[in-house]
Design brief:
The protein has 290 residues and is of the alpha/beta class. 42% of the residues lie in helices and 11% in strands. It has 11 helices and 6 strands. The chain has helices at residues 9-16, 42-57, 75-85, 103-118, 122-136, 142-154, 159-165, 180-183, 189-192, 212-225, 271-283; strands spanning 69-72, 93-96, 199-204, 231-236, 248-253, 258-263. The strands form 2 sheets. The protein has a 4-stranded parallel beta sheet with strand order 1-2-3-4, with helices on both faces. Helix 2 crosses helix 3 and helix 4 (103-118) runs antiparallel to helix 5. The longest helix has 16 residues, at 42-57.
């Protein structure tokens, strides 16, 4: 089974220390939560998030007019969908490395990075992209998807990239509906076009999973179409998908002797402070109704 993700708790504690309540819950089928993660869809997860929002809003110590949604990574697809589904009007939305692109386009972005890393030629890249498009094509039968994906993986011309996807490929036609990309086939565009409340999006400059070059312009466009005049997009320099900056050797020069120190991999400076500042300025400002 899947274990509980305790890495979320420090974020909630950080907010609580600043007077901001946060609910951290086990994703369905994870930890103590019921349900099945392996069959859940993005719409199921969004319904769970909307239910969590209602639970927070009903708490006697929480102002129901100041509750909102936070989603990280794939949660960036879930949060906009939950915004649309929620019976409680969310007052804000925060996404952390959350895609503005569809699931298919996000997968193709990752393939582009992997193709660069493997130095694939144009023909190999085309077949690599074909694998992703076939996997995401809901108009194809399960049998057709299985046969085409298997053929692409078995093709000796694709040896340089086939190993990347071996574990994700269906073992039989019956496994095709359970593929993650087919269960979560989703484009957040329509939901993002409806979000007109304060929105904070944080990206990592070096994130190849959700690359900012593709996602930031699209997110701006969709929020502009929503008439949203209060959104902030932050791209953290040299940060990856976990907003980590990687190990670094730093040099201090005080004008004389140089000193060196090793800075271990940590979340890039500014990520958590941006969230706190955003909430303080949008939800706790003097012109916000209590």
């Amino acid at each position: 089974g899947r274990s509980r993700g305790n890495w979320r708790l420090p974020r909630a504690k950080l907010l609580a220390e600043r007077g901001i309540a946060a609910l951290v819950y086990d994703k369905r089928g994870v930890g103590d939560s019921e349900g099945d993660w392996d069959t859940a869809t993005v719409h199921d997860l969004a319904g769970d998030a909307a239910a969590a929002l209602a639970t927070v809003a009903a708490h006697p110590d929480v102002d129901a007019e100041r509750v909102g949604l936070y989603g990280s990574s794939a949660g960036g697809w879930v949060a906009p969908r939950a915004y649309v589904l929620s019976d409680v009007p969310p007052a804000f939305v925060i996404t952390r490395v959350g895609p503005a692109t569809s699931v298919e386009e996000q997968q193709l972005d990752v393939v582009g990075y992997l193709a660069d890393q493997a130095d694939l030629d144009a023909a190999e890249r085309a077949r690599f992209n074909e694998f992703i498009r076939v996997e995401n094509d809901l108009s194809l039968s399960d049998e057709a998807v299985y046969e085409r994906l298997t053929a692409l993986l078995d093709d000796e011309r694709n040896a340089d990239w086939a190993d990347f996807l071996a574990d994700a490929a269906p073992a039989s036609p019956e496994d095709v509906p359970g593929l993650w990309v087919r269960r979560h086939a989703y484009d957040p565009a329509d939901a993002l076009r409806q979000i007109d409340v304060p929105f904070l999006a944080i990206y990592g400059e070096d994130d190849y999973v959700v690359p900012p070059d593709e996602n930031v312009p699209l997110l701006r466009q969709l929020l502009d179409e929503a008439g949203n005049t209060d959104y902030r997009i932050l791209v953290l320099p040299e940060a990856g998908h976990g907003l980590e900056h990687g190990h670094r050797l730093r040099t201090l020069d005080d004008g004389g002797m140089k000193r060196y120190y090793f800075k271990y991999d940590r979340v890039a400076p500014g990520a958590y402070q941006a969230i706190v500042d955003f909430l303080n300025e949008t939800m706790l400002s003097s012109d916000t109704s209590p």
